[in-house]
Design brief:
With 86 residues, this protein is an all-alpha fold. The chain has one domain. 74% of the residues lie in helices and 0% in strands.
Length: 86
């Protein structure tokens, strides 16, 4: 989100109105705010994401083939299981 709070509030109000008029009334206020933040990242968050994507593309062009999605998902599941057991 930008630092123009009145404009952000007007845009958020419009976003909520659109959600409600198109069947999005099943979201909690927190879920609606989370969705708004995903769709309207802060400039510094956007800059970090762009930097990370550029880095990943450069690594890919340099030959890094990354990891298989199945491997990453399995690792995440293991971490979540360990954290839920503690």
């Amino acid at each position: 989100m930008s630092t123009d709070i009145p404009r952000d509030l007007k845009e958020f109000h419009h976003f909520l109105g659109e959600k409600l008029s198109h069947g999005g009334g099943n979201l909690s206020p927190e879920e609606a705010l989370d969705e708004w933040r995903v769709l309207n990242p802060a400039p510094e968050e956007l800059a970090e994401s762009v930097t990370a994507i550029r880095r990943a593309l450069a690594e890919m062009r340099a030959g890094d083939r990354g990891r298989a999605a199945e491997s990453v998902v399995a690792e995440i599941r293991q971490r979540l299981q360990r954290s839920s057991q503690s």
